[in-house]
Amino acid sequence: MLKRYILKNSHIVECEGGGNILVFISPNEDEKRLLVDTYKIDEHTLQSAVDPDEISRLEFEPDHIALIFKRPQNYSHQRQLLFKSSTAGIFFQKRRLILVLPEDVFLFEGKVFLKIDSLHELLLKIIYISISHFFGHLRVMNMISEELEHKIHQSMENKNLIHLFTLEKSLVYYLNAIHSNGVLLEKLKNNAGKIGFSGRQVELLEDILIENNQCYRQAEIYSNILASLMDARASIVNNNLNMLMKTLNLITIAIMVPTFVVSAFSMNVKIPLQQLKYAFWIILGLAALSVVGFTWIWKRANRR
After folding, report:
1. Cα(30)–Cα(27) distance, rounded to whole angstroms?
2. Which CATH class name applies to 2-240?
3. Do the bridges between strand 57-60 and strand 97-101 make them parallel or antiparallel, or are there none, so unpaired?
4. Continuous segment of H or E residues that includes residue 57
5. In what order do the strands lie in the sheet with 85-92?
6. Can you say whether the dihedral through the CA atoms of 190, 172, 107, 32 is positive or negative?
7. Average pLDDT, stretch 180-204?
8. pLDDT at 236
9. What is the residue extent of each domain of the chain?
């Protein structure tokens, strides 16, 4: 799908035809041929723009600059708390910016895009908004982790631990993606003059680089905390299971002791007390006394 925009009076406006900002969302074969034949995009680089396993990079072509960068994938409940990153491409020509995305996203929304002075600035802010999305996903992952930790303290279900393992795996994906973007930003900074960034845009690039480093650091902290506490949380589940088994064993023994007493006096042979008028109540009393005796012995053993 192709969407066209034009940069007019420092605002991005969608248009029907023409436009100096072209957004290709999951391009089909015809659109890929258009990009390769008309806009002279290298076919291999174009394929990299929709390959989720591709790393971020910067390439200088004869008539354009190609940027491959990482962004978070749109989350869906079918993934069972698995957050993954996707790849997008920006192809910057002299008077045109082409953006290739593997999935449909909300573009050019928020106060970041309220005022855009040039395509160079738009290029930087597209990368910046991707970093902001990483930050948002990290906050959500942290909240989910705290909720799962609370559930693990109260439940022995394996699914909570599996969800934690999935979150830890997601953080590894995000760490690799954010680090890859950091390498791209460093290359942009080193080639700022060649690309044509102004002094103000270089300052914006430096701010974005700092923001990306902070995002990486936050993801690293969450990942380390989650990894270091996984063993402790698994031990909590094992301890909860042991406590439950202990309680079940106690209940079983407590039932067996009076059952043994009653069964002993129910045998079809001559037994003591069978001639007494209150034999039934005496037997029940002995059964109750056995429960009291067992409880006293169990509590005394636990004090040691």
Report:
1. 8
2. alpha beta
3. unpaired
4. strand 57-60
5. 11-15, 2-8, 21-25, 97-101, 85-92, 65-72, 57-60
6. positive
7. 91
8. 66
9. 2-240, 241-303
